Amino acid sequence: MNRLSAPGTKHQKWLRLALCLLAGLLAVGFFSAGGFAARAAGPGSSTATGSSTAGDDAVGEITTGISLEHSGGLGTGVLLDRNRSTSITPAGGDTIGITSETPFTRIYLVWDRPPAAWELEAGGATSRGGSYGYLHELATLETPVTEATLTLGEGENILCDIYLFGDAPLPDWVQQWQPPCEKADLVVFSTHADDEHLFFGGILPTYAGEQGLAVQVVYMTNHWGERYRPHELLDGLWTVGVTAYPVIGPFPDLYASLESLASAESVFDRDEVLAFQVEMLRRFKPLVAAGHDLNGEYGHGAHILNAQTLVEALELTADETAYPESAAQYGTWDVPKTYLHLYPENEIIMDWTVPLERFGGATAFEMAEAGFAKHTSQVTYFSVQLGGTWEDCRKFGLVRSTVGPDVAGNDLFENIDMTPEPEPAPEPESVPVTSIIPAEGDSLPGEHSAFISLPASTQQPSDSGSSWVIMVAVAAVVVIVVLVAVLVRVNRGGKKGGKGRRRW
Ligand SMILES: [Zn+2]
């Protein structure tokens, strides 16, 4: 030791220099990687959720300094009253000028009925909407503007509300629907708005919300006669994580359908309902279908008719000679698995008490309750129930299967191969939604996976962080090699009494 220390003063300087360099590099690497990681977590977490804290209605919303002007002179005050039961009915070709003292980038439109196709001009760009019949539709602009012009399409336009938003995260209640599924994993056949929660319980929060599957809800009846109910329907579906816009059937909900099948068949044409079911199964080609109790849950005739025609339809969808019109339009299909609520054979009891990560740990049952709670016109009459007889939303029976019986249970997709089909390598770039109308045949980016995919922009910082870590690691290795060389040099120098020739 002593022999090395005395003659090694020069070497010690080299050693100290190298050690300082190594420590500095490690420190820079640590803080750089940490800094990038922190930045990645910051905006990523808020962008991923895409919404503010539940119940915080005002986040991002512009509520003052807005003025609206209808080209035909209709009063536009009702469009800013946040009340879906008040509306105006502008004619096709009319315009509504929108000005705001605060720049806005998003416009949320609430319609009373499916509107005609509309156009929105803002900042020199045109967005189009209305072609999917969304009652609640968000238009995203390319740049912040203080003026925009909405031009109504030819047809019925009953407009309830207009909301403006800046760049801040949107509130939870703003709905961003995707078109109905091109190909569904699961179709739920609900008769009325609210049955999808009452009788199908945790199915929607589990398979649409938590698992992000392509879930399509098809309602046999419509409630256009009760203008609040279609909004309740959409609010409920959005709450439980459904993103594919529902099919709202052509059959008006009629009170005469209550209580018995005969009553239901007196107001609904059974063959028309059957044709509708066949068409829906061929259109969405589900792996799993779920329908009502054959006894109508509590004897409701429309529920019975819906369940019976669904079971009949299962035997017809693969036959191109049955209802050939929908076969020609969509092709044929044979549904692998179909469950009915409360069906007594091949029964499974779903566990809806498992916490769901997508909903912050709320259970599927709690989310079914939350979805049903959006049906404010119905909550005094019904409630979602675990247990009981007709109310038990956990009990389903496999009424038809082409993939064998269930063994484990508690999974509608048991025996279904969910391995995604190989696809050609997708384009890596993310696609900003500047127009809410995709071209014919296109599917929207992120369709049916909006809740589980992060925007590419939030991933870039952590990629940069990784490259920094690699650079620092390489530099550290170089320094260590230099250190070893110095040590060897010192060692040799020591053995020679510190008089060796210095080469560096
Ligand atoms: Zn019902």
Helix and strand topology:
Blueprint: H1 2-5, H2 9-49, E1 61-62, E2 66-70, E3 95-111, E4 118-122, E5 125-129, E6 136-151, E7 159-165, E8 186-190, H3 195-198, H4 203-210, E9 215-222, H5 229-239, E10 247-252, H6 261-267, H7 270-284, E11 288-291, H8 296-299, H9 301-314, H10 324-330, E12 337-341, E13 347-349, H11 364-373, E14 395-401, H12 460-495
Helix pairs in contact: 2-12, 4-11, 5-11, 6-9, 7-9, 7-10
The chain binds zinc ion.
Quick structural gist:
This protein is an alpha/beta fold and 504 residues long.
What structural class is derived from the secondary structure elements? alpha/beta
- What characterizes the major β-sheet? 7 strands, antiparallel
| Rg from Cα | 31 Å
Q: Which percent range fits the helix content?
A: 25-40%
Percentage of residues in strands: 15-25%
- Bound small molecules, deduplicated: zinc ion
Fill in the keyword field for this structure:
504 residues, alpha/beta, Jelly Rolls, Rossmann fold, 3 domains, seven-stranded antiparallel beta sheet, seven-stranded mixed beta sheet, 12 helices, 19% strand, globular, disordered N terminus, disordered C terminus, binds zinc ion
Explain what this protein looks like in three dimensions.
With 504 residues, the protein is an alpha/beta fold. It folds into 3 domains: 70 residues; 112 residues, Sandwich (Jelly Rolls); 216 residues, LmbE-like (Rossmann fold, 3-Layer(aba) Sandwich). The chain has 12 helices and 14 strands. The strands form 2 sheets. Strands 1, 2, 3, 4, 5, 6 and 7 form a 7-stranded antiparallel beta sheet that branches. It has a 7-stranded mixed beta sheet with strand order 10-9-8-11-12-14-13. A hairpin with a 2-residue loop joins β4 and β5. α4 crosses α11 and α5 packs antiparallel against α11. The protein is globular and about 65 Å long. The structure holds zinc ion (ZN).
